[in-house]
Amino acid sequence: WRVWAIYMVLVANLSEQQMLKEACPACDAAQLCNCSSMGLDFIPPGLTAKITVLNLAHNRIKHIRSRDLQQAVNLRALLLQSNEISSIDEDSFQSLVNLELLDLSNNSLAHLSPLWFGHLFSLQHLHLQGNLYRDLGESSPFSSLRNLSSLHVGNPRFSVIRQGNFEGVEFLNKLWIDGHNLSQYEQGSLKLIKKIKHMIINLRNSNIFSEIVRDVLHSVTWLEVREIILAVETKSLVQNSTGPFRIQKLTFKDAFCTDESLSRMLVLLKNITSIKEIEAIDCELEGRGEWNTKEIASSGESSVETISIINVRIQNFHLFFDLNGMESQINKLKRLTITSSRVFMVACKLARHFSSLLYLDFNDNLLVNNRLDETICEYAWPSLQTLNLSQNSLKSLEETAKYVSRLPKLNNLDISQNNFGDIPDSCEWPKNLTYLNLSSTQIPKVTTCIPPTLEILDVSANNLKEFGLQLPFLKELYLTKNQLKTLPGAAPIPNLVVLSVRRNKLNSFSKQEFEGAQVGAVHLSLMECHRSLVVSLICILVFLVILILVVVGYKYHAVWYLRMTWAWLQAKRKPKRAPPKDICYDAFVSYSENDSNWVENIMVRELEQACPPFRLCLHKRDFVPGKWIVDNIIDSIEKSHKTLFVLSEHFVQSEWCKYELDFSHFRLFDENNDAAILVLLEPIQSKTIPKRFCKLRKIMNTKTYLEWPLEEEQQQMFWENLKRALKS
Q1: Which cysteines are joined by disulfide bonds (predicted)?
Q2: Which of 111, 140, 159 is the C-terminal boundary of a domain?
Q3: Residue 258, pLDDT above cutoff 60
């Protein structure tokens, strides 16, 4: 029966995998499983742990069952948007502890259950917009989502936000609330979220907007309000709140306002002193600019530095007032963008009060030359550095240049997509102009009207057949989409770095265009021609040099000299000779392990059992365990009256003895040559001693040493001489 059970499980698994392959061929043996737009009305079985991304969007799934996703434990992204999901089993997502993105938007969910999200500890992005729920429940459905980064909720039926609905959510990069028909907001509901970088809310009710602003003053950095119908607000947007506030940017999109409501809003926004940028995109103003300028002026200066007005519709824009009385509100403004809003003039009196403005963008408006004289009158825009007048109705390049020459600090000018059609031989420009965009202006040629101070010039998409201007400072030249048949000469533009000549009619190149320089006359360095080859050769050479140094160092005992230097430096830090009270041994014995039988069984017994006994220091017995060998050797030599070397052929070849000689060489022989006692177990020539032990070789050539006699009758004399040497 067990075999039968295993067989049935295998058959079931194979059957499910076959069903998955049939339902969604893209799922076969892939981590990314794309089953979108396949007409599925259920989640296909056979999902395994290897799948990390599952896309089931745009199907007809109505219900998510407990077992549907049970095996997909490594899912990181689950896309279920645009189905017909109306019910989800409470434990359907229980196994998805690694899930980071869940999209349930545009379905038919009539309520949200906290149990759905209870085990989604890794979830960062949750999309729930476009369903049928009217509220988020009595409590928070998101309380367990501690890693949540972006949240999108709401739908056309969404009408209530309650206190506690966002409990557990502390930090969000993006919060989007579709509250188009929101009618009830309990004060303090959004205060639970400590920090929101960007909050978007679709909202019509102006009163709820004011309540939400009061709640998010200290949490939201960028507040974007869409589809609002601004009413005349009487209460303060701040009320009892105290700064510092967090809101820095406020955006109105698809909003509707009147002169009265806009005028009042300008006054109220001044209380939020943290706001530095205001945007109005695709908005509509019903009025003619009849604002309460006295109330606006009396409420103090504005702290806003950037204003962007994009595609704002004003029904009777030609009747719009000149905003007389708003002068005090624009002194601190640094950037002003008014595009696609049918602006045809700025009153000279107002323009002169933009004293701090650095950037002005009037792209896609109705500016004409005779009104430009008023807009850029004498002393207007005194600090302006960048001006964009592209896509207007300017006709005269000579007049345009004359008017902008009144801007003493102007560096960058864009007058592209104006139909100039002609270009004079000379023009008057600002003295510091370095960037000029004349693309798509229908000019047939370039003349000395172009200012010689330019570093960047764009004359693309014109009717130019040649370019021969002398521009000594020019670095970038854009000639795309013209009628050029030859390249511009190189001599008149000696500092050119970037040249764009795409979509022209180039068919020949002359010597003069390249100052007569031939390719053969250009000598590039080896690095410029073969950079990778040179780098490879350098790496090989460095490797060879290191290899040679290692070989030479090994052959000539460089490591030994380094060790000796270190030992010598350590020894120099210590006293020249230990005080008598610190002398623990009569002799430190240095010997080869191959000679240990003679040393330990004959010499040690003879000396340590003598009367009086000698105290000997042996590395096997007396070295401190765990202590560095250098310190053990130096300390043992310093605490010994003599150092006794038992020399033999084994000693000379022994690594251990070599280290003892290495680390004791300087201190032993530099301080007192009489401290060394040499015992020869067998005949040995001094020349067999390594040359680097020069002082040891010298001592063997100049001092008497004791030889171990093989005859027993002579050994007694050897011991007496050795004991006498140890006592001296």
Answers
A1: 27-33, 348-377, 427-449
A2: 159
A3: yes
User: Sorting pLDDT into bands at 50, 70 and 90, what band is 526?
Assistant: low
63: domain CATH number? 3.80.10.10
Written as one letter, the residue type at 230 is: L
Tens of pLDDT, residues 641-666: 888 888 887 777 765 565 555 555 55
User: Residue 179: what are its φ and ψ, rounded to 5°?
Assistant: -115, 40
How far is Cα 176 from Cα 202, in angstroms, rounded to an integer?
8
Our count of domains for the chain comes to 2
- Among all chains, which residue has been given the structure tokens 């003879």? 606
> pLDDT tens digit string along 360-376?
999 999 999 999 999 99
Q: Which of 112, 142, 159 is where one domain is finished?
A: 159
For 469-494, the pLDDT digits (tens) are 999 999 999 999 999 988 888 889 99
DSSP, collapsed to helix, strand or coil, labels residue 151 as: strand
Q: Is residue 44 part of a domain?
A: yes
Residue 655: which H helix or E strand, with range?
helix 655-671
What average pLDDT score do residues 302-306 get?
A: 93
Query: What is the pTM for the complete model shown?
Result: 0.68
Whether residue 53 contacts residue 73, with contact meaning beta carbons closer than 8 Å, is answered with no
Instruction: Give the number of residues written for the chain.
Output: 728
- Concatenate the DSSP letters of all residues of 276-306 into one string: -EEEEES-EEESSS---HHHHHHT------E
Structural domain boundaries enclosing 62: 22-159
- Bridge partners of residue 590, in order along the sequence: 645
| Strands 640-647 vs 313-314: parallel, antiparallel or unpaired | unpaired
Nearest to 478 by CA among 432, 449, 510, 438: 438
Give, in order, the Cα–Cα distances in Å from 239 to each of 163, 264, 474: 20, 15, 56
Residue 175 lies in a domain: no
CA distance 118 to 402: 68
Q: Is residue 530 part of a domain?
A: no
For residues 584 and 108, what is the distance between their CA atoms, to the nearest angstrom? 93
Question: Do residues 221 and 196 lie in contact, with contact meaning Cβ atoms separated by under 8 Å?
Answer: yes
Any bridge partners for residue 224, and if so which? 200, 251
Please check whether residue 28 lies inside any domain of the structure.
yes
What CATH number should be reported for the domain holding residue 694? 3.40.50.10140
